[in-house]
UniProtKB/TrEMBL annotation:
Substrates-to-products reaction catalysed: Hydrolysis of (1->6)-alpha-D-glucosidic linkages in pullulan, amylopectin and glycogen, and in the alpha- and beta-limit dextrins of amylopectin and glycogen
Domain of life according to the entry: Bacteria
Keyword field: Calcium, Glycosidase, Hydrolase, Membrane, Signal, Transmembrane, Transmembrane helix
Species assigned in the record: Caloramator australicus RC3
InterPro entries, alphabetized: Carb-bd-like_fold, CBM41_pullulanase, GH, GH13_cat_dom, Glyco_hydro_13_N, Glyco_hydro_b, Ig-like_fold, Ig_E-set
Entry EC no(s): 3.2.1.41
Family per similarity comment: Belongs to the glycosyl hydrolase 13 family.
GO molecular function, one term: carbohydrate binding
Domain spans labelled Glycosyl hydrolase family 13 catalytic: 489-878
Enzyme class: hydrolase
Protein name: pullulanase
CDD domains hit by this protein: AmyAc_Pullulanase_LD-like, CBM41_pullulanase, E_set_Pullulanase
Pfam families: Alpha-amylase, CBM_48, PUD, pulA_all-beta
């Protein structure tokens, strides 16, 4: 009986316990499925800046978060993610991207999925326990600050390495290592002009004889902690971006610092501390694929990384079998730990291209009413899924397994009409799943976080005509007007309703102060031929969900083939951004203006967070010999245009914009980071669509891991026919170096720069042994300019170089600059607002400044209407006379002849015939002096002046007689010979008279 009762009791207890589990389940640990981040920020009470947070799980997209709570320490934010992350990046910033601390910071100490940190203003340190705010004193530096820098390089090679240091917001200087200690090299120096600043910028760089900036390790870093005496002492280490204030913070234990797959069976592995060389290094090295050890053929030291006869730092490991690209590979060495192998030179190998280069034209979402075929290139993925979402804000969607086909392309077909379907791709790389937006997505959800399928025919506005564009023949016929979409309309007195939007570009009949025309009407009236729009693709720096005023130039690409949502009237609607951009383009075309698109294929907002890197890690971005991303762009992630699938993407993207949006030209940002072959292939592809499409670019010679002979820069311009480069030689010769605001040029007081100005006047061609820019080029390869969105505006530059000049004197220099640009051979380029002496209040890098700094000030147009009319007249003169638009270098050499002129005066004659048109003896003269000068004209007789210090155009202002011309100070003159011979004006009048007589006689006879 007891045994029976015991059994019953046991049964009851088990029953109750089991049911209690369901009634009161055990509490699930937060860290199992979520991540929680609490960020406290001790806001500086002396500033009223509206700080917020930009947060991203490592390798993923970022998002804005507000400080929504407050305690005795200051404001704080609670951020929660549904997924588990072990590393989360953050930036304390304003909506205009002013950062509290320059560098990206990362939280990587989580306990049960939760991390709580405290931050102090201007201090890069992440505190995991609450610091004492009272003990933190705001640094106030004196007139000069003593700085000691200890620098350690694992490779032991310090040759050429030095420091560039500057007080925040001021000019910088070079400083050198003069001693050494047990840690490494030491530089001890004083930085002048530090009074009133609270941090010092610092860059470690390597200089060569020819290039002080041959290599830069990381970007700008900042010294923010100072000792009680105001001095600073820091420790820096190769490959470590953090500024350390104590040597104890550094980990210098032996370890692998890089391992890359350089061919299908070759791995390069690099250590920080040199290892002892043995006869058989295979004994020390283990290579595993998914945890399974594989057989090695040989292990050799890289001779370029030998420290001594018996020590080295880099190994070349060769395996018997080809290594799989879709599995995790690790390298191990006793005493040095292990490292996961990333993809290196293998991506540039012939074998990789043979196996995986895909030349199909169907990547992305291929829409039809019956079905949509999705295709994505991901050769290193072991699995891939198409993810379909019901709404843009959904965190999870329906996952559909994709099929792997040829060349590493995965595909899935969805039946039915998928117009408006929201989607992403998920790929499994090693053991990790990455989710990415389709790089070929035609439109995106708000903030570009998901792709959207579109029936593009439904995005065309009512008046859309893809077959119409304003007539245009030669590239040198172009006059380019560079414009930011928001700048045009955001001024309160612009008279434009759709302020800051694509549709604002399309409005006509708008008026500003004193009834002056604004917007599209103003541009049309000015007479330019092309409007170049700063980035209009989807970029990352603007939060499209925010209604607060935000500004950015947009040189931080997120989705290359989708328009930017902040320029649409509804960023939540994927169709509106497409339709409204097309509306703007059609309006420009209807008003006789072609459209150039500013494209930024040289880098992305973030390599880790990019759709490229999530789909095929390491492929689309260029790395140096050390396996690290190159930084020629200054953004830390140069794209690898020389790799076939990146080259293909650039060509596919450009041709898509040309066909779908009827774009008439492309301006390549930092084109010198691309390779010659890619740019020539772009030219070839666009010629098949429309040969009149213009290609221009910034051909700067930038430090990136490309051979000098293949860089698409100015030095190689002759290898890229019909691709134009910005001519910085004439830019700086006209007004002085853009890198030194006090340096002057021809118009503002510098002597002996005439030859540099002349080299631009002739279109950059090899005119003579002294007058040339880049050698064997044609005039359609030189973009002539003196102002652009970068650097100070011309007006601001003139104010810096001539602080005591009157407004009238500044105006004279400004008009002289414009006259040089608009009468030079090549392709002239002006910055929006230059025609009314645009100012940005001295801000030389206004990429994220306020609307007040960046907007076109229409009140200024009303104030400087005379300057507007002057530019308008120069444009009319250029458009109506082929002498200023010669198409070949031979023509320029035959028909342009420089005249003898006094110091700081340039004069030349345009003579004979060209282009089948006739002209005779047109003289152009520029006086850069502060006093009147006299030049001798090529012929004695009557000369008609059409441009002087006050007016410009094609109508005769006045006539002079003789063979001399007096040039007022800081003036430009254009005049043509009338004499007793038949010139082009008289011929036109005579023909008109004869035609009139014949017509009247015919009427009389009839």
């Amino acid at each position: 009986m007891k045994r029976k009762n015991l059994s019953v009791l046991s049964f009851v207890l088990i029953f109750l316990f089991t049911n209690l589990i369901f009634l009161f389940p055990f509490k699930q640990t937060f860290a199992q499925t979520k991540t929680k981040l609490i960020i406290h920020y001790a806001k500086d009470p002396n500033t009223d800046k509206d700080w917020n947070l930009w947060i991203w799980p490592y390798g993923m997209e970022g998002k804005k978060y507000e400080f929504t709570h407050k305690d005795d320490f200051g404001p704080y934010a609670i951020i929660e993610f549904e997924e588990a992350y072990d590393k989360v990046g953050f930036i304390v910033r304003t909506d205009n991207w002013e950062k509290d601390v320059a560098e990206d910071r990362f939280v990587d100490k989580f306990k049960n999925g939760v991390a709580e940190i405290w931050l102090l203003p201007g201090d890069p340190e992440i505190y995991y326990s609450k610091p004492d705010k009272k003990s933190i004193k705001k640094t106030s530096l004196g007139e000069k600050t003593k700085v000691t820098v200890h620098y350690f390089r694992y490779d032991g090679n310090y040759e050429g390495w030095n420091l560039w240091v500057w007080p925040f917001g001021k000019e910088g200087s070079a400083y050198y290592f003069t001693s050494e200690d047990k840690y490494g090299k030491v530089a001890e120096f004083y930085v002048e002009g530090t009074e009133g600043v609270d941090k010092l910028g610092i860059i470690t760089r390597r200089s060569t004889k020819d290039n002080p900036w041959a290599e830069k390790e990381f970007g700008d870093r900042f010294i923010t902690k100072f000792k009680e005496d105001g001095s600073a002492e820091i420790w820096l280490a190769q490959g470590d971006e953090k500024v350390h204030y104590s040597p104890s913070e550094l980990d210098l234990s032996p370890k692998f610092v890089a391992a890359t797959l350089d061919d299908m069976n070759i791995i390069s592995a690099e250590t920080n501390i040199p290892f002892v060389l043995k006869n058989d290094l295979k004994e020390d090295i283990v290579v595993k694929v998914e945890g399974k050890q594989i057989k090695l053929s040989k292990v050799e030291p890289d001779k370029n990384y030998l420290v001594s006869n018996n020590k080295g730092r880099k190994l070349i490991i060769t395996t018997y079998d080809k290594l799989p690209l879709d599995k995790t590979i690790t390298v191990e060495k006793i005493g040095y730990g292990s490292i996961i192998v990333s993809y290196g030179k293998v991506f540039s190998s012939e074998e990789f291209d043979k196996l995986y280069y895909y030349d199909g034209n169907d990547l992305g979402a291929n829409y039809s009413k019956e079905q949509t075929l999705f295709k994505v290139w991901a050769p290193t993925a072991s699995e891939a899924k198409l993810v379909i979402y019901s709404k843009w804000e959904d965190k999870a969607g329906q996952e559909l397994p994709m099929q792997k086909g040829e060349k590493g392309v995965w595909s899935y077909t969805l039946k039915g009409d998928q117009h408006g379907t929201i989607y992403t791709y998920k790929v499994k790389i090693g053991s990790k799943w990455n989710e990415a937006v389709d790089p070929y997505a035609r439109s995106v959800t708000v903030n570009g976080d998901k792709g959207v399928v579109l029936d593009l025919s439904r995005t065309n506005p009512e008046k859309w005509d893809p077959n119409f564009k304003p007539p245009f023949k030669n590239a040198v016929d172009a006059i380019i007007y560079e414009l930011h979409v928001r700048d045009l309309s955001i001024h309160p007195d612009s008279g434009i309703k759709n302020k800051g939007k694509f549709l604002g570009l399309a409005e006509t009949g708008t008026k500003g102060p004193n009834g002056t025309s604004t917007g599209l009407d103003h541009i049309k009236d000015l007479g330019v031929t092309h409007v170049q729009l700063l980035p209009i693709f989807d970029f990352a720096s603007i939060d499209e969900t925010s209604t607060k005023p935000q500004f950015n130039w947009g040189y931080d690409p997120k989705n290359y083939n989708a328009p930017e949502g902040s320029y649409s009237t509804n960023p939540y609607d994927p169709i509106s951004r497409v339709k409204e951009l097309k509306t703007a383009i059609q309006a420009l075309h209807d008003n006789g203006l072609r459209v150039i698109m500013d494209v930024v294929y040289n880098h992305m907002f973030s390599a880790d967070a990019s759709n490229f890197n999530k789909l095929v890690p390491g492929y689309f971005f260029r790395t140096g010999h050390d396996g690290k991303l190159t930084n020629g762009s200054g953004c830390g992630n140069d794209t690898a245009s020389e790799r076939k699938m990146m080259r293909k993407f650039i060509i596919d993207s450009v041709t898509y914009w040309a066909k779908e949006y009827n774009i008439d030209g492309f301006r390549f940002d930092l084109m010198g980071l691309h390779d010659v072959e890619t740019m020539n292939e772009v030219r070839k592809a666009l010629d098949k669509i429309d040969p009149t499409i213009i290609i221009i670019g910034e051909g700067w010679d930038l430090n990136t891991a490309l051979s000098p002979d293949v860089k698409a820069n100015q030095k190689n311009a002759y290898k890229m026919p019909r691709i134009a480069h910005f001519n910085d030689t004439i830019r700086d010769a006209i007004k002085g170096s853009v890198f030194d605001k006090t340096d002057a040029g021809f118009v503002n007081g510098k002597d002996y720069v005439e030859f540099k100005v002349k080299s631009g006047i002739v279109g950059g061609i090899e005119y003579s042994g002294q007058i040339y820019t880049w050698g064997r080029i044609e005039p359609d390869q030189s973009v002539v300019y003196c102002e652009a969105h970068d650097n100070n505006t011309l007006y601001d530059k003139l104010k810096f170089t001539n602080p005591d000049a009157t407004e009238e004197e500044i105006k004279a220099m400004h008009k002289l600059s414009g006259a040089i640009v608009l009468t030079s051979q090549g392709i002239p380029f002006i910055h929006a607002g230059q025609e009314f002496m645009r100012t940005k209040q001295g801000n030389e890098n206004s990429y994220n400044a306020s609307d007040e700094i960046n907007r076109l000030d229409w009140e200024r147009k009303a104030k400087y209407l005379d300057v507007v009319e002057y530019y308008k007249g120069l444009i009319k003169l250029r458009k109506e006379h082929p002498a200023f638009r010669m198409t070949t270098s031979d023509m320029i050499k035959r028909h342009l002849e420089f005249l003898n002129a006094p110091k700081n005066v340039i004069a030349y004659v345009l003579k004979d015939k060209a282009n089948g048109d006739e002209w005779e003896n047109i003289v152009v003269a520029f006086n850069g002096n502060t006093s009147e000068q006299t030049i001798k004209l090529p012929k004695k007789g009557k000369w008609a002046i059409v441009v002087d210090e006050n007016k410009a155009g094609t109508e005769v202002i006045r006539t002079i007689t003789g063979d001399t011309l007096k040039l007022p100070a800081k003036s430009a003159y254009v005049l043509y010979y009338k004499g007793s011979s038949f010139n082009f004006v008289y011929i036109a009048l005579l023909i008109g008279l004869i035609v009139g007589i014949l017509a009247s006689r015919k009427v009389a006879i009839n």
